[in-house]
Structures are given as structure tokens and as C-alpha cells.
Backbone:
């Protein structure tokens, strides 16, 4: 099942904060976050594993609530370069196969 | 730099034609994936391969086939293209042998238009 992302779109001014959520109806092994700029390929941002391990960019933070099967991506003090579409990808077991959400479009204005 | 490349980058074809999209990687990764991206639908998995002899269907494999010719090469074929296969196609790789995280690295994409 495809995870559900919210909101679908968000508009910010530079310096503002945003939270993007990703929810699954199934128990998750891991949640991945990727950012895709217009006309480019998705780029890996962060992975959060069941049990608390995580790996990602030092300027990106995220959480994984295993009880609720939800992950949140926190974008603080946003910059123009943060603009793009953010996708979460969920992994149900250690199969290495991801199911992606529909994406959240983030636009940061000066 | 170790990379993921896709050819062609753009392709326009006609209904009924056979098309092959190619993906090559110099990252030394063992796992390779093909995704399709349509506006508002995110990335949907077509096929994936965990090594040369292991190929699996994804969620939307109908109308597609793949070939893993070598660890570094993974090709996607449309046997008889139809207009609703018009989309942006991405190849991705991940390294399972040296990482438990399975982060995926995407190629630049192939924009396919079927008339």
C-alpha cells in the first residue's frame, strides 16, 4: 500500500519551518526521504530504521513513530534551495523494496 | 565519480513499437531498480533485481520486461508501447553488500513519449 503524505503542498518564506508527514497502514521496517528538484532525479536525504537507527544529511532531521507507523521530516530555517518535491519511501521488511508516497511540493520564496 | 547513467534521455515513439531503455552504473552496487513517475502519482516500482540472477516484478510490471545483462547493466523493455506508458522512467541502484541502509541512487531519467 502506498504511504500517504501530508500536506500535498506547502509554501514558505525563507527562514520559516515546515513539517512533512508520511503515514502507512502497515508495520514498517524503514522510512526513506528523498527530494526531487524540477527536472532532476530524486536525491536521498535520510533513512530511519525500526529500532531507532538513522542515517542522513546533518542539516535534515526526521522522526519515526513506530507505534503509529508515521514519519515526519523537519525542515527548519528553510532556504531557497529546499524547494522541490519531497517523497517518502516505505519498506515493510528488509527486502530492499520501497513504496513511495505521492509527494509533497515545497516552495520557498525570498 | 561513480554514477548511474540512462540512455536515451528522451525518446518519442509510436504505438506498437518495441522500445528498450538502458541503465548502467559504475557504483559497484548489487541492486538495481526501474521506476516510473507520473504527475501526482509519485514513483512506482516496475521491476527490481538484487543480483544478476534475481529479477522480481514490482507493482506495475504488466507491459514491461527487463534484462540484467551484468551487475552494472539493467535494461527495461516495452514490447509493444502504448500511449499510457508515456512517463518519466528512472533507474536506481543500492548497495546491500556493504550497507544495511539500502539508500537508493537514481539515474537522470528517461522521458518517454508514446504517440
Residues:
Amino acid at each position: 500500500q502506498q504511504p500517504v503524505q501530508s500536506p500535498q503542498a506547502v509554501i514558505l518564506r525563507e527562514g520559516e519551518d515546515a513539517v512533512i508527514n508520511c503515514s502507512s497502514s502497515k508495520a514498517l521496517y524503514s522510512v526513506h526521504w528523498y527530494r526531487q528538484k524540477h527536472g532532476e532525479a530524486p536525491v536521498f536525504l535520510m533513512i530511519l530504521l525500526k529500532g531507532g537507527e538513522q542515517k542522513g544529511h546533518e542539516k535534515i532531521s526526521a522522526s519515526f513513530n513506530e507505534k503509529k507507523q508515521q514519519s515526519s521530516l523537519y525542515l527548519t530555517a528553510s532556504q531557497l534551495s529546499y524547494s522541490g518535491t519531497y517523497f517518502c519511501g516505505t519498506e515493510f521488511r528488509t527486502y530492499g523494496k520501497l513504496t513511495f508516497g505521492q509527494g509533497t511540493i515545497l516552495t520557498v520564496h525570498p | 565519480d561513480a554514477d548511474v547513467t540512462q540512455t536515451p534521455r528522451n525518446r518519442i515513439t509510436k504505438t506498437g513499437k518495441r522500445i528498450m531503455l538502458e541503465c548502467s552504473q559504475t557504483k559497484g552496487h548489487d541492486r538495481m531498480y526501474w521506476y516510473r513517475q507520473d504527475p501526482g502519482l509519485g514513483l512506482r516500482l516496475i521491476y527490481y533485481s538484487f543480483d544478476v540472477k534475481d529479477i522480481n516484478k514490482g507493482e506495475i510490471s504488466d507491459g514491461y520486461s527487463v534484462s540484467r545483462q551484468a551487475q552494472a547493466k539493467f535494461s527495461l523493455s516495452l514490447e509493444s508501447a502504448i500511449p499510457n506508458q508515456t512517463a518519466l522512467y528512472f533507474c536506481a541502484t543500492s548497495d546491500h553488500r556493504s550497507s544495511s541502509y539500502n539508500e537508493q541512487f537514481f539515474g537522470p531519467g528517461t522521458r518517454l513519449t508514446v504517440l
In short: The first strand of chain A starts at residue 4 and ends at 6. The interface with chain B takes residues 2, 30, 32, 34, 40-44, 47, 49, 55, 87, 89, 91, 96-103 of chain A (CB under 8 Å).
